[in-house]
Write a structure and sequence with these properties.
about 220 residues; alpha/beta; eight-stranded mixed β-sheet; binds S-adenosylmethionine
């Protein structure tokens, strides 16, 4: 496995203006790289934190069958409107994944909503209920345990995540998620993803997380 990948551009497709403020989508080149590497045409690809649909749209374009879950209704509606396989995006909470009718999947790419260890509102609830970092990590483990029930044997699960540096507070989110999800799937290793974008000041982290690189954590369902 190549463990360090440099991309020359950071690409996102056009989205309506009302989504610009909270645009935390994945880079298309990164998602496409992993879909291509770990799935083939006609395979079922699932993203349980679908966001604005990067994984689902790319999977469809790459002739896979996309599935996804997204908590926020507006985002769900956006995906549904623009996806050919409209019924394959579920409006719901991944913590309740076992309640949804999802077929066995061949590959999963997801980027969970991030949390700093000092925060006290649980982002997995759509920021509607209290809950600290330990609860968040416990629920991440539950979510990926639920995902396991729909993943085929020997399939690959990739999680894109970053550590977070917020002023003086460092949250080892990527490493903590690696530990939690390792309790569910076999951890195959991490791929460090960086971007070589002319003119972009990477000194203090270009993506709002305090870092200029992401981790793609690669797990196997063995
Ligand atoms: C980092 S974003 C994913 C972005 C996505 N990779 C993209 O490119 O559009 C995380 C997403 O997870 C959603 N989310 C948060 N908690 C959730 C939950 N419990 N179940 C399902 N989706 C959730 C958020 O609303 C957000 O859209």
């Amino acid at each position: 496995m190549k463990t360090f990948i440099v991309f020359d551009k950071y690409t996102k497709r056009e989205i309506p203006v009302n989504f610009h403020k909270y645009d935390n989508r994945s880079d298309e080149a990164v998602v496409a790289y992993f879909i291509d590497r770990y799935s083939k045409k006609e395979d079922k690809v699932i993203d349980i934190f679908a966001g604005l649909g990067t994984t689902l749209f790319l999977a469809e374009e790459m002739e896979r069958i996309p599935y996804g879950i997204e908590l926020i209704e507006e985002k769900y509606q956006f995906i549904r409107k623009n996806l050919k396989n409209k019924d394959n995006i579920i409006h719901g909470d991944s913590r309740k994944l076992s309640e949804f009718d999802i077929p066995n999947c061949d590959f999963s790419f997801s980027s969970p909503i991030f949390m700093n260890k000092t925060e006290s509102i649980n982002p997995l609830s759509g920021f509607t209920s209290e809950g600290g970092y330990n609860q968040y990590l416990k629920e991440i483990q539950i979510i990926y345990s639920n995902l396991k029930t729909v993943m085929k044997t020997n399939s690959t699960i990739v999680i894109e995540v970053s550590n977070l540096k917020n002023q003086d507070v460092l949250t080892t989110l990527a490493w903590d998620i690696a530990i939690e999800v390792s309790k569910v799937f076999h951890f195959d290793g991490e791929v460090i993803v960086v971007w070589n974008i002319p003119g972009l000041n990477l000194k203090d982290g270009a993506f709002g997380y305090g870092y200029d690189h992401h981790y793609c954590l690669v797990f196997k369902n063995i």
